[in-house]
Write a structure and sequence with these properties.
The chain is an alpha/beta fold and about 350 residues long. The chain contains 14 helices and 13 strands.
């Protein structure tokens, strides 16, 4: 088969990496397109995944998003026309869903946060399969047009794509980190720019607490920004390590003593790797995070006073749940007659 995978954000590379490898091992021809945004291209290069760069992120304003969707979808159509793909796959990529519909190619979409309404109204209606964790009640997705299309998997997507992962301590050397002192990893919020957003915000207090802990307690704080604008701001905070390029973030998570993140993927990677993690997400919690908090695997940070910085004995990803990524492959290919059946 000829399979098309479109990647529009950094986490999508991580999710689709084992899917691409398994499909190619089975003899399928896999073509990858990618949007120039965040660390998407850097991660593709790090994993050695051949790809074609099409389009870039146009900003967070609704009008800019609309322009970006229209222009990149059109570019994808031009690129894919005549390549005779059997199916198109994406993780929250509106662009590939639109392009696939225009080209009359079956499409599967994947996500694990159900409240991104604008995105899901488009993707769920255009796709033939909607692949989500079983923690999400199916009725939450019906209003998006997903009824009859839902393919659910157990656990976290991170437990699938990290199944073959073993942490390397090379990242500690790369960042000049000392394992004898606490390592705290912080991931910034998913906004395109953080300018003026630290003021009166929980993250501002967390960064101030970390700054003092780095100065007074020997805590090593590593901040992973999402964009160049965020990186420029974070560099202004004394005592912080801010990587200049894409790094082996999963190994860093495994060796960290604490993770603090406003986003979803890094939180769940920490859960999957057995690293203590706080979420600073201030939006509406999804069903998956609700379940993790209820189980005590994820903690919600409401005040920097909750934070305690100390070395943990078991670092390096020893507490693991590993799941077979072939499950995700089967669900994603279900529009072509997979045995996977809709949960609705």
């Amino acid at each position: 088969m000829r399979i098309w995978i479109d990647l529009t954000n950094s986490p999508h590379v991580l999710v689709m990496r084992p899917v691409i490898e398994l499909l190619r091992e089975e003899g399928h021809e896999v073509s990858v397109t990618a949007r120039d945004f965040a660390q998407t291209l850097g991660l593709l290069e790090r994993f050695g995944i051949e790809h074609t760069v099409i389009g870039r992120h146009r900003g967070e304003r609704l009008a800019a998003k609309a322009v970006g969707l229209a222009s990149r979808s059109a570019a994808l159509v031009m690129w894919a026309r005549g390549r005779r793909f059997d199916i198109a796959l994406g993780h929250g990529s509106n662009d590939v869903s639109v392009a696939a519909r225009l080209l009359r190619i079956p499409c599967s979409t994947m996500f694990d946060y159900e409240w991104a309404a604008v995105q899901h109204h488009l993707n769920c209606r255009l796709a033939q399969a909607v692949v989500v964790p079983d923690a999400i009640p199916p009725e939450r997705l019906y209003r998006y047009g997903a009824k009859g299309k839902i393919r659910a998997y157990e656990g976290l997507k991170e437990e699938y794509y990290l199944a073959d992962f073993e942490p390397s301590d090379a990242v500690l050397t790369e960042l000049s980190l000392d394992r004898s002192r606490p390592i705290v990893l912080v991931r910034t919020p998913p906004e395109v720019s953080l300018y003026h957003r630290f003021e009166n915000d929980l993250l501002e207090s967390v960064l101030a607490r970390l700054r003092d802990a780095a100065r007074d307690e020997g805590v090593q704080a590593v901040v992973l920004p999402r964009t160049d604008a965020q990186r420029a701001e974070c560099r202004l905070i004394p005592g912080f390590t801010v990587p200049e390029r894409a790094i082996d973030a999963q190994s860093l998570i495994a060796y960290a003593d604490l993770v603090i993140s406003a986003g979803g993927t890094m939180n769940r990677e920490a859960v999957a790797l057995g690293t203590p993690v706080y979420t600073t997400f201030e939006g509406r919690l999804g069903a998956l995070d609700e379940r993790l908090i209820e189980e005590g695997r994820l903690r919600r940070l409401r005040s920097p006073e909750q934070l305690e910085f100390s070395r943990r004995e078991e670092a390096g990803g020893s507490a693991r749940v590993r799941r077979d990524p072939r499950v995700l492959v089967e669900l994603l290919l279900s529009p072509l007659g997979s045995r996977a059946r809709a949960r609705a």
